[in-house]
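Here's what a typical entry looks like (TIR domain-containing protein):
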Amino acid sequence: MLVHDVETRSHPAVPHQRSAQRALERTVRRTAWRSVPALRRGEARTPQPPGGYHAFISYARAVDAELAAGLQYGMQAFAKPWYRQRALRVFRDLGSLPPGSALWSALRDSLDASASLILLASTRSATSPWVEREIGYWVRRYGVNRLVIVLTDPADEHDGAPRDRATWDEERQDFDWGRSPSLTPALCGAFVEAPAYLDLGWARGRTAFSLEDDRFRAAVAALSAAVRGVPLDQLVGEDMREWRPWPPGGLRLRPA
């Protein structure tokens, strides 16, 4: 009889793979996680509930529909073991809800079934009643420890002047709500220290995203590491190993 288990042999990465890994790591380091070093390393998070989601994406369709879809597919594919359908299960309303669903009930159930919440924060999401409802429900029920903020408004105005998006007030230990137009009011008073966030303002206006784009791949890596609660360099290494081709004799069947 054959095949009751599969054995793999370890083998060094070939030069072009080592070069690709170093390039991705450099890009990841340039992808800005702001504030709170602990979150840059990855914060421990509740495991995915059975039949649930690793993350729920809350966003404004008017400006971030394409980015939300790109992040969903990217996180599902990044560092995916060859034997699994996806690396992470990510909820996005347009891609996850079946037609005919009772909208808020379905969203609430999906929030409850999610281990983390990703907020694509923009001036449009800040005024969206649906985003405010999702974030408010999450904060009241789970707090902010499993909430990841991604800023999607460009960092600069059209004239090159810096744009206010999310400004922390150390004295008040809260956001300066006169200078944080990208954040939903549901976050008012929710944080006790400045949260980490991922800056994807450079992606505004793009209509297609691919993991072959180094900058987008680095963003997906950083976000996936935060959701999984693992160090970023570890996850990048896992992704490189999954893409490494089998060497001759690297896979063999062991007799039962």
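Residues 64 and 224 are 18 Å apart (CA to CA).

More examples are in the samples folder.
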